[in-house]
Specification:
The complex is a heterodimer. By secondary structure, chain A is of the alpha/beta class. Helix content of chain A is 32%, strand content 27%. In chain A, the strands form 6 sheets. In chain A, strands 6-9-10-3-11-12 form a 6-stranded mixed beta sheet, with helices on both faces. Chain A has a 6-stranded mixed beta sheet with strand order 18-21-22-15-23-24, with helices on both faces. A 4-stranded antiparallel beta sheet of chain A has the order 2-1-4-5, with helices on one face. The longest helix of chain A is centred in the middle third of the chain and has 16 residues. Chain A starts with a strand and ends in an 11-residue tail after the last helix. Chain B is mostly helical. Chain B has one domain. Chain B is globular. Classes of the chains: A alpha/beta, B mainly alpha. The structure holds adenosine-5'-triphosphate and magnesium ion.
Chain lengths: 508, 317
């Protein structure tokens, strides 16, 4: 048996936090190895150690039988490793092609040959079936497409060992399936793949071996075919978890938010929303699904006041919002969980309590006479850390030191703890583990039963099917259909997402 | 009318190009550090030391080229010290920059006194200034040709550098890595690009150009060194860099504006206006214009017209 990767006795401490505890972990060459565990279990840290981004306190790493000291990513790359990071490492002002070739530019006569890079990108993109436009700036892309760029970046480097940290968190099921088909092809050709995921069905479907981490330590490594999903869940969280459609009582409330004839254009002036009309009533969850890049991002931005619509109006509780501005929307009663937590959800270099305060900083009882009442804020933050099971030392912990899923919980906790009539939740469970997902779903249902109007945007169709009262499908910037979650199937939704009878427009 | 003609003539354009050169050179140096994510407030000091050592070098070597080389070396050394503190030792860049500015001011005064025994300035027949280049063909193209001819080499170089710097930053590997370092260091590190190395390199590039700017001040049109001779140009460069976000082409326009206002104010002085007031003109004009420029670049709100709307609806049907 040849191990492509062998990590022995790896321990990593961050101050008092032990992120990895004497972890021993082996991956055979040519296999697809899934790494699973709750938020904060230490998965990202372990992979960062392997990739040379973080130096372990103890332990050794062997690559193809050779002991190596991974002192920098440069060494890892030289040894044939490639990593897709949980939080993207793309440069917004550069184009897709420039990002993919960063660090291995095609140079001719001392200058970068941008044409050749674009051409190569186009080829690679076609070869791997991940559609991107080489000449677009990354700042104009949606998270789903950014994810594709990150994956292409690694594949283009011809890595022999590929680490993917939650690559499918923002991909639709179809896109994920496509990605794993590609990875399987590579594995058959001898590539070694490690991927981290919270979608256990996907883990069961595509992996050869699973390693479970809990609290920084390995619970076990098992061949996937000897496991079933329930066992896996129990290994991870120590109990069963509810994934079924949530039971509900029909509530027919008054209209809380109404969008009339909304049009919007993206940075290049291309129409992103075409005449969108929708209403969300009190006590109702309206789900929005669609292949990424069909207007969901822009819809969320318009509602959040982050993007001025080019036509149409928004009314909350019957009152038209005059000015497109986040504060105006928030004061009208919006709570918003944005899709990209690091860009829009948190200030990573601030503490949890400062992040919890954000958006309330003008309001009683958190502020008075121009001063912030930190004592109250901290006490409140402590309560939320408990309620949302945020794994952090205390409320003073800086958000940037939290694991990805725990950052997400901070955003969800802040927004769900506001008593607002309307919630816009965009990928609310991005990167959270199944236990936390269940809890967030509970919170969404609780808000619904309390009479909030909820607009749920998600690439996880099963999530929308479990929660929504009505599902709207978006295609090419407009609402292409509405389905009843009680009666529909994933196939019907998939068809509508692809434009139904209409010809699909380039999603990128 | 006559007065206006005396102020605005071809000579004014020539003067503008001349006064633009030093601030342009130092600002272009600053584009490297700006793009690499360093806020370099030490430009003023680097330029001042460059000016001082250029004069010293010119006297020692009895050649203008020698003077320029020694001036540049001096400011590169300062730039190296700056990045050593800021990048390697992670000191605060504003504090280090300010300290080096103060040091440059004090050091030049002290050394002037120690070496020449004078206070305030070094004026000597031994200083070899830079030659003026008469461009052979262009010179014969009438008044316009004459206007573009007869500058010192650094004036031509400064304008050529706009293109060179742009090329380096936007078309070469090292430039790309410098920009990525400033914009998203985590991305650079994850791909094995050393951000520290890039910041050192950017700082040294900056030192070279700041040194040239200094040499232009002291060996260009006047061959002398005066206390605080950079007179805030390095700080103006910082302002230009902030407004232009380090983009070489926008830097050029900001600097031309400053150069023009500077040349104009020199002109106005000859009309007996209070020199203190007039001297503030270039700074005020440049700041106001830069502000107006950034203000105009706010994203504009796009609204659909009846026509585009009907188009959107028709496609839907
Ligand atoms: N730079 C850091 N400083 C301090 N603590 C850290 C740092 N990075 C990670 N940690 C802590 O180490 C633990 C493991 O984090 P890690 O990011 O590896 O979790 P994870 O398994 O990837 O979780 P998720 O599924 O949420 O991404 C967490 O408790 C986290 O707070
Ligand atoms: Mg993680």
């Amino acid at each position: 048996m040849t191990f492509a990767i062998e990590m022995t006795g790896v321990t990593k401490r961050f101050g008092a936090v032990v992120a990895n505890r004497n972890v021993s972990f082996g991956v055979r060459q040519g296999e697809i190895h899934a790494l699973v565990g709750e938020n904060g279990a230490g998965k990202t840290t372990l992979m960062n150690v392997l990739f040379g981004l973080v130096q372990p306190d103890e332990g050794t790493i062997r690559i193809n039988g050779q002991t190596v000291v991974m002192d920098s990513p440069r060494r890892a790359i030289a040894l044939g490793l490639g990593m897709v990071h949980q939080h993207f490492k793309l440069v917004p002002s550069l184009t897709v092609a420039e990002n993919i070739f960063l660090g291995m530019e095609i140079v001719r006569g001392g200058l970068i040959d941008r044409k050749a890079q674009s051409e190569k990108t186009r080829q690679i993109s076609a070869e791997f079936g991940l559609k991107v436009d080489p000449d677009r700036r990354v700042s104009e892309l949606s998270v789903g497409i950014e994810q594709r760029v990150e994956i292409l970046k690694v594949l283009a480097r011809g890595a022999k060992i590929v680490i993917l940290d939650e690559p499918t968190a923002v991909l639709t099921p179809q896109e994920s399936r496509e990605l794993f088909r590609i990875l399987r092809r590579f594995a058959d050709a001898g590539m070694t793949v490690i991927f981290i995921s919270h979608h256990l069905s996907e883990v069961m479907e595509v992996s050869d071996t699973v390693t479970v981490l809990r609290d920084g330590a390995v619970v076990g490594t098992r061949p996937t075919r000897e496991l079933n999903e329930d066992e896996l869940v129990r290994m991870m969280v120590g109990r069963n978890v509810n994934f079924d459609r949530r039971p509900r009582k029909a509530i027919s409330g008054r209209t809380v938010i109404e969008l009339k004839e909304i049009c919007a254009r993206d940075a290049r002036g291309v129409l992103a929303l075409r005449d969108v009309n929708l209403t969300v009533r009190s006590g109702e969850i309206v789900g929005i699904v669609g292949v990424d890049g069909n207007g969901q991002t822009e819809l969320a931005e318009v509602i959040a006041g982050l993007r001025a619509p080019s036509h149409g109006e928004i009314a909350v509780n019957g009152i038209t919002i005059a000015e497109s501005h986040p504060r105006a929307m928030r004061e009208a009663g919006l709570a918003h969980v944005p899709a990209d937590r690091l860009a829009r959800g948190v200030d990573a270099s601030a503490s949890i309590s400062a992040n919890i305060l954000m958006g309330r900083q003008y309001a009683q009882p958190w502020a008075g006479r121009g001063l912030i009442r930190w004592g109250r804020v901290r006490e409140f933050a402590r309560g939320l850390i408990k309620r949302f099971d945020i794994r952090a030392r205390n409320e003073k912990t800086l958000v940037k030191t939290l694991s990805g899923g725990n950052m997400q919980k901070v955003v969800v906790a802040r927004e769900f703890s506001r008593e607002t009539p309307f919630l816009l939740v965009d990928q609310p469970t991005r990167g959270v583990d199944i236990g936390a997902m269940e809890r967030i779903h509970d919170e969404i249902m609780l808000k619904r039963d309390q009479g909030a109007a909820i607009l749920l945007i998600s690439v996880q169709i099963d999530e929308v099917l479990a929660l929504a009262d009505r599902i709207l499908v978006m295609f090419a910037g407009r609402i292409s259909g509405e389905v009843d979650p009680e009666k529909t199937t994933e196939d019907e939704i998939g068809l509508l997402m692809a434009g139904g009878a209409e010809r699909p427009r380039a999603a990128a | 009318m006559e007065v206006l003609e005396r102020i605005f003539n071809i000579a004014l354009i020539a003067a503008t190009l001349r006064t633009t050169a030093p601030i342009l050179l130092v600002s272009l140096g600053g584009t490297f550090t700006t793009k690499a994510g360093i806020f370099n407030i030490g430009l003023e000091g680097q330029m001042l030391l460059g000016a001082f050592f250029a004069v010293l070098g010119s006297i020692w070597t009895q050649s203008a080229l020698g003077g320029v080389l020694i001036g540049v070396t001096a400011s590169v050394v300062v730039a190296g010290i700056f990045s050593l503190f800021v990048v390697t030792l992670r000191a605060n860049e504003v504090v280090v920059g300010l300290a080096l500015n103060l040091l440059a001011g004090g050091l030049t005064i002290t050394l002037t006194k120690a070496i020449f025994g004078t206070r305030g300035s070094i004026v000597s027949g031994d200083i070899v200034g830079m030659p003026r280049i008469e461009l052979p063909v262009i010179h014969d193209l009438g008044p316009l040709g004459q206007m573009l001819s007869g500058f010192t080499p650094l004036v031509y170089l400064s304008f050529a550098m706009v293109f060179v710097v742009w090329l380096i930053l936007y078309r070469t590997r090292i430039g790309l890595h410098i920009r990525v370092t400033g914009e998203k260091p985590a991305a650079a590190e994850a791909l094995g690009i050393s951000t520290a190395a890039m910041q050192h390199i950017a700082s040294l590039f900056c030192g070279v150009l700041a040194g040239l700017a200094g040499a232009h001040l002291s060996l260009g049109y006047i061959t002398m060194f005066a206390e605080n001779m950079s007179s805030g140009r390095g700080f103006m460069a910082v302002a230009v860099l902030i407004f232009s976000n380090g983009d070489p082409v926008r830097v050029l326009f900001g600097c031309l504006l400053f150069g023009f206002a500077d040349a104009l104010s020199l002109r106005l002085q000859t009309f007996g206006l209070s020199s203190y007031l007039v001297l503030t003109v270039p700074y005020l004009v440049t700041l106001a214009a830069l502000f107006a420029l950034t203000y105009r670049q706010r994203p504009k709100l796009f609204r659909e017209t009846a026509e585009t709307l009907s188009l959107i609806r028709r496609r839907q049907a």
